[in-house]
Amino acid sequence: MLPHLGRRVQMSGRDSAGNINMTDGHFSWLREVMLDLEVIRMGRREDKARMTRSKILTVADRMIGEHGYEDVSVDELVAACGIAKGTFYNYFESKEALIQALSQAHFADVTGKVEDYATRPPVQAVEEYLLAYMGVIVDARIGLARQWVRYIATASGSHGKWDQDRRDLSRLLDLMVKAGTLGSGLSVEGMSSFIMTQMYGIVLTWTIAESMVNPLEAVRGFSRNQLPEVMRPYLTGSGGFSTVARTSSEKTKVKQ
User: Which keywords does the record carry (predicted)?
Assistant: First the structure.
């Protein structure tokens, strides 16, 4: 230590008990360093937390796909993840909460584009949203879809997945109402419930009769035959109808 710096520490850098006075101006640099170190430590903890949560979701997705929701316990899941049971509950308050988080993760790419869909004519916007939604389910393969249907049917007292799906679609409809492309007389909740009922029906029939139902073509059929009619009273201008379904229907016969 340089002599003049040492004298400053002795004279103004310590309190009467000889402790370093961190509020002293000469030590402002040290405070900044300590704050930076704390920020780094917090960042590392947050990174570790994100990695742990992501690992739980990834392992749970695989195990549920292989064994089914009912046959995967929290104990088995934490053992496969190599974490303590208490760690699991730091991230998810219940197994049901984990399933909802899995659903949100699967559909994040779809729900994250709601604002973009909302810029299209209303019928086209809903059609494209539903095709993207059903595409996620198809890409996950029918085995996982069957487990999803089984979970929905057996999760006693739980409507989390259904409620989330309706909320996501309601957000799209609400954006178009606010933009003025859909009339304010539209019951957003009622319309989203009606549409999602159709989507759930498509998934259910696909899991029952895989060879007879093409989910994406079924969505296109719904978008061509039903969606325009139920939305027609609420369209505020021309151009509310999609050309996607019409073009597709000319090339492909919908399997029912």
Answer: DNA-binding, Transcription, Transcription regulation
Helices (H), the chain: 3-12, 28-67, 74-81, 85-91, 95-106, 108-111, 114-117, 122-139, 141-154, 160-179, 188-208, 215-225, 227-231, 244-251
Query: Of all residues in the chain, what percent carry a pLDDT higher than 90?
Result: 52
Neighbours of 175 (CB within 10 A): 18
How far, in Å, CA of 234 to CA of 22, rounded? 66
Fold of 22-95: Arc Repressor Mutant, subunit A (1.10.10)
Domain ranges of the chain: 22-95, 107-251
The structure's pTM equals: 0.70
CA 93 to chain centre: 17
The class of domain 107-251 in CATH terms is mainly alpha
